[in-house]
Design goal:
Strand content: 5-15%
GO molecular function: DNA binding; DNA-binding transcription factor activity
Radius of gyration: 22 Å
Strand order of the largest sheet: 1-3-2
Shape: elongated
InterPro entries: DNA-bd_dom_put_sf, MerR-type_HTH_dom, MerR_fam
Largest sheet: 3 strands, antiparallel
CATH architecture of one domain: Orthogonal Bundle
Oligomer: single chain
Number of strands: 6
CATH topology of one domain: Multidrug-efflux Transporter Regulator, Chain: A, Domain 2
Helix content: 55-70%
CATH class of one domain: Mainly Alpha
Keywords: DNA-binding
Organism: Streptomyces violarus
Protein name: DNA-binding transcriptional MerR regulator
Distance between the termini: 63 Å
């Protein structure tokens, strides 16, 4: 394990590419966590350095300090990735994605608001891992981002996702009950692709029917 590094204020400001005065301002605005105190000396670590670099990157992308402060609070109070993935560990088919806050902003631009971030965390899409954010599924991240770039507000995308989650849970329950009536629990992983194929085909046909409607 790498040794934890600590910095005095002047060194931290230099590494972050900002002035000591700016660092003090960020600390007063609670944009960074308090330093560790040793007598009259304040010690900062790599967590503070990562947060300062994130602030700089978000400012360059047009975010305001007030918005960054709200995002920082959301990150600090977000669910840990361990809670997000649960006892069973990582998803068996979906690929989690680690993101920095500025990378998340690149995906959703000005839609990456504290309100939308909190909604995504409540939905179980996002968790935190130190200074990084973890999205539970690369496919869901890509689809959400694509819909936002098509002009659909992220809040509406997340609301729709919540409704889809309810229907998906019901479909998973239906398929599991069907298999367990005629096979064993050990057969579920092997037969799982069949359930996905049925849902994909039925959704495709349903979209055809919907688009044919006057």
């Amino acid at each position: 394990m790498a040794e934890k590094r600590e910095y005095r204020m002047e060194e931290l400001a230099r590494l972050a590419g900002i002035t000591v005065r700016t660092l003090r301002f960020y600390r007063e605005r609670k944009l960074i966590p308090p330093p560790r105190r040793e007598g009259r000396i304040a010690w900062y670590d790599d967590h503070h350095l990562a947060r300062l670099r994130t602030i700089t990157a978000l400012l360059e992308r047009g975010h305001t300090l007030s918005g960054i402060a709200e995002l920082a609070e959301a990150f600090d109070h977000g669910r840990d990735v361990g809670d997000l993935l649960g006892v069973g560990g990582a998803p068996t088919e979906e690929e989690p994605v680690h993101l920095t806050p500025e990378e998340l902003a690149d995906h959703f631009a000005d839609e990456a608001t504290p309100e939308n971030l909190a909604a995504a965390m409540d939905l179980g899409y996002l968790g935190t891992d130190g200074d990084e954010i973890v999205h539970i599924s690369r496919r869901l991240l890509d689809v959400s981002s694509a819909l936002v770039h098509e002009g659909i507000p992220l809040a509406d995308v997340l609301d729709a996702a919540k409704q889809v989650r309810t229907h998906a849970d019901a479909l998973a329950e239906l398929f599991t009950d069907l298999v367990l009536r005629h096979a064993s629990p050990q057969d579920l992983p092997r037969l799982r692709p069949l359930a996905r194929s049925v849902v994909e085909a039925e959704l495709s046909l349903a979209l055809d029917r919907r688009m044919r409607r006057p």
